Task: structure prediction
Amino acid sequence: MAKSSAPSRERIVAGAADMISRRGLSATSIREMAKHAKAPLGSTYHYFPEGKQQLATEAVRFTGEWVAGSLRKELEAGPAEGLRAFLGLWRKIVVDSDFHAGCPVLAVAIEEPPADEIPPALAAAAEVFEQWEDLLAASLRAHGTEAEQAAQLATLIVAAVEGTVAMCRAQRSTQPLDRTAEQLQALIAAAIKG
Result:
């Protein structure tokens, strides 16, 4: 992160993503997100005049692109390598935070939205999950997996890893991640050979 006297928009977004990954969206105020990012509340509202929902939406998109960037790079070597990177990224987050942080995209996705309304942050979470699935599915297809199987396996990977991150936090252990990794690696190996 940049270390300047004025808080950058990106630093505020990254801080918000981290805060949401730890506490969820409902339990986090824009004031707390600003404080966590070491940013004045006025600067936060300057960058995010629509408030908490706008900042949360940007935090979800920031996380989505950060993960997608890592996935794109690793998937160049193939779907197995992409999976290892995806799992490794989440392992690092849960371990480095002593099991206090998870995925801010999941945290936003499981929040109860107001009746008859899809908040922008929830819509962004859906887009991020779809982006990750699309990247994984494209790599699987490029390595010989039939299109529908590639789409299904990509959905399974994203769902399994996101759920496993939550289990790791609850159990204060990486064992769920290790078990999930082994099975997903086997599924990818079978899909690209078939």
